[in-house]
Structures are given as C-alpha cells and as structure tokens.
Amino acid sequence: MKWTKLMIQTLREDPGDAEIDSHKLLVRASLVKKISGGLYTYLPLGMRTLNKVAAIVREEMDRAGAQEIVMPILQPAELWKTSGRWETMGPGLFHLKDRGAHEYALSPTAEEVVTDLAKNIVSSYRQLPATLYQIQWKFRDEIRPRFGLMRSKEFLMKDAYSFDVSLDAADASYMAMFNAYKRIFARCGLKAYPVEADTGDIGGKFSHEFHVLADSGEDGIAFCDGCGYAANLEKAERSVSKRDDAPCPDFEEVHTPGAKTIDQVSAFMGVPGSAFVKSLVYSADGTPVMVCVPGDRDVNDVKLRHFLGVRKLELADYETVLQATGANAGSVGPVRPACTAMRIVADQSLAGARGCITGANRDDYHLKNVDLARDTRLADADFADLVVAQTGDICPHCGKTMAIRRGIEVGHVFKLGTKYADAFNAVFKTDDLKEKTMVMGCYGIGISRTLQAVIEQSHDKDGIIWPSAVAPYQVVIDLLDPADESVANVAAELEAQLEEKGVDVIVDDREERPGVTFKDADLIGFTVRVVVGAKGLAKGGVEIKARKDPKEAMKIVPPAEAPAAILELLASC
RNA sequence: CGGGGCGUAGCGCAGUCUGGUAGCGCACCUGCCUUGGGCGCAGGUUGUCGUGGGUUCAAAUCCCGCCGCCCCGACCA
C-alpha cells in the first residue's frame, strides 16, 4: 500500500480534549477522529488495528470451540423486561421507539437475546455444552464518556455466552474462555492480569476481570505480591486481626462546634481519624440503615449492598438522616438509645472496639469512650467486611500486605448460573427425561478498548510502538528518493516479497524530507521501518530498524537479504 | 444531576475586559530552494466567529435564551 493513497493526516500537536497519552496518540496518529462526545470514526489505520485485534479474538474463540453468530443491536424491550434489566440498567441503557411506538433497546450486551435463542434451539442435553459469541458494536449511555475509546458510548465488543447442563460442567466452559483470554491478550502484546471481580448488574456468582496495569486506569485493584491474589477494589477483601481494646469508662459528650467531617473533628479533638467510628446513613431499598466503619476508611458500596441483600443502595438524603437519628449529618452515631428503629451494621474491624469516638446524634456533639458492644445494639451478625481495601492491608489468603494499583479492564469472564435461564425458562431434557435449567456463563472483551490499552502500554515520547500482531502495517518502507528509479524498484520488490510472506507493508512514497517521514513513522509506530535511499543503495544496502529499538540498533543489509532480516526482526516484536 | 471552563479555518490558539468590518502557528495549494529527524524564501486557499434573538450607526466582542464540548464533583457526615 502506498502512503499517498491512504487517508492519513497526522497531527503535530496534541488534541485539546485529550487527557491521557493513548488518547492523544490515537488522534495524532490518525487512527480515529472524534465526531461527538464518546463517538468516533475509525480511519483506515485505526480500522486495520481494530480488525487485527478482532481477528485474534475470533481465532482464539474458534480454537476454544466457541461458535460465531451475530445478534441484532436493536433489541425488543420485551426481552429486556423479561430479564428485569430494562429497569435495573436504568438510564445507562439506550432506548428508542419505532413508528408504531414499540420500544427497543440498543444492545449494551446480549444475555437476553442469546438466552432466548438457546431456549428456542436447545431442547436436549445432547446439544450441550455450547458457547456462542459475536463481535458486535455495543451501546451504553455513559454518564461521562472519556479517554477516547476507553469509555465511549459506542464500542466494539466480543461477547460470548456458554450453556451447560450443570454448574460443574460450566466450570469447563469458564476455564476454556479464561485460557483463551490469556492467549488473546498475550498475542496482542499485552500484559493482562486476571483479577477477581464483582459480578455487577449482570449478576451471577463468580467472575474474573482481565486488567492491563496503567496509571490512567479507571479501576483500583488490590494486588498481593505474596500469593498473587488480585481483586478489584469493589470486591477485594482484607484480613483483620482480633482487637483487644482495653475497657473504657462510660461514654460522655464532647462539644464539637462546627466540626462535621472526621478530619475536622479529628483536628478539633487532637485524636487520629482511626480512633473514630464513622457512621453513615444509607437508604437501602428505601429503608434507612446505619453503617459504621473506622474513621479513616471508606465504605465499599458493593460489599454493603451484598451484605444487606438489597438492590438499590445510596446515601440517604439529609432529611432522612435527621429523621432517623435526630441529628444532622456530621453528628450521627450508632449509640443507643437514639437509633432504636434503624438497622445498624459495622465493619468487621470494629468488632470489640472500645474507647472510640462517634457522633452523638445531637448537632455539634460527639461521644468519646464508646464501647460498641456495651453502648450499641450491634450484635455479632451485624459485623462484616464493609470497607474499601487500602495499600498496606493484609491479604486474606497469605497474610502479606497488599498494594493498590490502577488497571484498565479489557476483559471480563462471569459464571452466570441460572439468572437468565430462569428468567427465560431456558430448559432442556436430561437423559432421564427430566427438565433442567441451563447453566450459563458470559465473557466479554472490549475490542476497541483493548486497542487503546495496547497504545497506553506501548508508547514513548515519539509515538506508538505497535506490537507486530496488531500494527496497522507491520513494516513501513520509507523512500528517501521516491522519484529515483532504482529506489522505487528496490522498494517495490521488497514490498512484494514481504507481502508474499503475509507481512503488511506501507510504502511512504511522499515527496517529503526525511525528518517528516521519520517523525510520522515513529508517531504511528509501525513495528519495523525500512529506509531505502539512493545513497544507501549506492553503498549496497537498505536500512532496517525495529520501532522499539534505539537508533543505534539500526542495521544496513543488502536488498536481497532484507526480507529475511525483516521477518526475523518482526518475530521479536 | 451540581459546579467550573470552553466553543473563532482541518488542528492548536490569540482577539472578547475597553464594540469599528477577523488574525497567528501548523496543515493545505503554487513556485524556487533544500534533502538523514517536523528545513528556508515568496505567493496563495480555507471562516454562517456554535446557534437563535436583543441592544447599537456598527457585535466574535455587550445582554438574554438554546445547543455542543471538556474538566471536577455527585453528598464518606
């Protein structure tokens, strides 16, 4: 392919609306063009890399025994109402009506459609197990699209769904996908880590996310270097040692005028935040619940929601707080008798806490010398792991300390159980003619996000450094003298030979100074650069260099030997 | 949803406070020159100044409405 035939318009300056390197480079290297917030056109170069990632995913899905299908993006509302997600996904789900006022959703995933499909096609255990997948555009009405392709309203996703005869059988389907994912990300040149995760709105029992570590990542992940435990902060557990607090005298009120936050009261009283019991009033499916955690800790909403077994959980508004406790936010606490009606729960690390400070349920007052067992209605069953893990917390599996890192979620594998199969009554006949519900799993990879994650993980100050497997073109042949006949001939011959070997080649035939073509080659990041010039040829060689290598690693080889040398270089990238 | 910022050429921006008929850099086109890391010179093209209304002799500039985009926050008491 000739450069001058392609729609490429590289930019010298960073786009004004990009925050992170990969987003800036996507735009500067002319891979994508924004059309509106969270919506992008893929230009020829971007389309090629997107297709390459998709091709790797397709190959590995097929290898793992999954079958490719395509489901509609526009999906009838009835299916979504059957599963309940028409309501639970709320405004995150795009919906629209046709001229007959029938409602539709734009698919953000396809559990409903695929379960309905399986229900209709599968009637016997003989047809299982089966895993279906598609590579299809998905739509989500994100609150705040950002970071280019990382969080956009429309994105390319591979979604797969497994159907099995039992939970045990589903393990094999899950593991097949898990292993396929490891291969996929490795082939894309990515270091991706499987991380234990919450199952979110999709539901189910067990799941792993695949994360690429990056400072710009939107997710926090607890890592234990001791045993390899890795978990999304939404789920990450921590181990706490049993407290042995000394008995304390009866609690007493302390006047704390104007001090509302833990930081303010802590400063006012000259006591560290960890000595406080922070008490928050939540609205759990509409009922107020008080949650107590150490003053230097944040409540983990996901853990709390699971523990309480409720669907909708949010911090209560100020009026509810006042009604439930008799005090305004900033002065509330768990000590009786104020909160007689409300359920109170607390983080496990507070079991046995004595001598702590809480709100007094009276504006501008706190209590000191609180003994949670003695002074509150908290019973053993009310304690659970309810806080967000922090760096330095103890790993629940090996006892070593964990660290929090940032990650980009590029893939997710779930065991769904029978959540959707139950909703759609997707059953099959067993060998003894009984009816049984299918057990499902679902498995997603953000293809467009993966593409950007590769850039985020593989770039330098000059531009992208494409791994060979997903480069828009693996080799750029830079013609220093495009008008020179011998240069053009050597380049054409080289291009033909490489393409015969299955290598994607772009020939930079622009009448530009070398500085311009070199800068562009580095910016777009073609895996290997070949320079063909009249002077070099006169001396008997062309020049080859891997993008990831420094200038000094450049080699000069005779044109006849170039294809073999280039293939070797590509194999190492 | 709340707060802040921004909308001027394909891209990045100045001009707005203090109203006077729109500018810079990059890109693009022509010519000369140059030719190993975004060269130089000369000439040139590209704008409903986001949009609708108002004030005014005159509006990118002042006033009001709307739209879009970006960032932060969304109540951790």
Break the fold down into its secondary structure elements and pairings.
Blueprint: H1 21-28, E1 32-36, E2 39-42, H2 44-63, E3 67-68, E4 74-76, H3 77-83, H4 85-88, E5 95-97, E6 103-106, H5 111-121, E7 130-139, E8 154-164, H6 167-187, E9 192-196, E10 206-213, E11 219-224, E12 230-232, E13 252-255, H7 262-269, E14 277-284, E15 287-294, H8 301-308, E16 313-315, H9 318-325, E17 343-347, E18 356-359, E19 365-370, H10 372-375, E20 383-384, E21 402-417, H11 419-424, E22 427-429, E23 435-437, E24 439-446, H12 447-457, E25 459-460, E26 463-464, E27 475-479, H13 485-500, E28 505-508, H14 514-524, E29 528-532, H15 534-538, E30 542-546, E31 555-557, H16 562-571
The chain binds one RNA strand of 77 nucleotides through helix 7, strand 14 and helix 14.
What would your notes on this structure say?
With 573 residues, this protein is an alpha+beta fold. It has 3 domains: 3-236 and 405-455, 2-Layer Sandwich (BirA Bifunctional Protein, domain 2), CATH 3.30.930; 252-384, YbaK protein; 473-571, Anticodon-binding domain (Rossmann fold, 3-Layer(aba) Sandwich). It is 28% helix and 28% strand. The strands form 8 sheets. Strands 3, 7, 8, 9, 10, 11, 12, 21 and 24 form a 9-stranded mixed sheet that branches. Strands 16-14-15-17-20 form a 5-stranded mixed sheet. It has a 5-stranded mixed sheet with strand order 28-27-29-30-31, with helices on both faces. It is globular and about 95 Å long. The two termini are 22 Å apart. The model has no long low-confidence stretch (mean pLDDT 93). The chain binds one RNA strand of 77 nucleotides through residues 9-17, 19, 27, 34, 36-37, 143-144, 146, 260-262, 264-265, 278-281, 291, 293, 297-299, 314-315, 317-318, 321, 328-332, 359, 480-481, 512-520, 522, 531, 533, 535, 543, 551.
